[in-house]
Amino acid sequence: MLLHIVARGRIGRSPEAELVDRYLKRIVWPTRVSELPDRGGREPDRPAQGRRILLDEKGEVLGSTAFAERIGRWRDDGVREARFLIGAADGFSDAERGEADMLLSFGRATWPHLLARAMLAEQLFRTTSILANHPYHREG
């Protein structure tokens, strides 16, 4: 299953970009990052067997194991792509939220886009580690 991050805004060359790259390079699953301008631009076409996950303050707050279990179920059900969208500064509209397969939140605090991208990359690495029974994730 492809893990695809679609983010509004450019990360450029920054410490956050290095952190995102560090985690994405550790993931053995296929990954992709697409950047869109802050306004306009079109999301890449979604494959028929894909899921759209919006990072949104109104989303579910899941622990790492529960998140991994959800991704694992999708993978086992034949989902070809899990697409994670990080919106612009004003977030997503109600219509966009309604079209999503899942709303995901990293807590009730508001996070800068660059940190949200880094946290997502780490959680995706953690997810694939949990699903592979790798010792990276330690719970409890």
Give a quick precis of the structure.
The protein is an alpha/beta fold and 140 residues long. It has helices at 15-26, 64-76, 94-99, 113-131, and strands spanning 2-8, 31-36, 50-61, 81-86, 102-105. The chain is 36% helix and 25% strand.
Please, how many helices? 4
Q: Kindly report how far apart the N and C termini lie.
A: 29 Å
Order of strands in the sheet with the most strands? 2-1-4-3-5
- The low-confidence runs, each spanning 5 or more residues with pLDDT under 50, are none
Question: What would you say this structure looks like, in words?
Answer:
By secondary structure, the chain is an alpha/beta fold. Helices cover about 35% and strands about 25% of the residues. The chain has helices at about 15-25, 65-75, 95-100, 115-130; strands at about 1-10, 30-35, 50-60, 80-85, 100-105. The protein has a five-stranded parallel β-sheet, with helices on one face. α2 (about 65-75) links the parallel β3 (about 50-60) and β4 (about 80-85). The radius of gyration is 14 Å and the shape is globular.
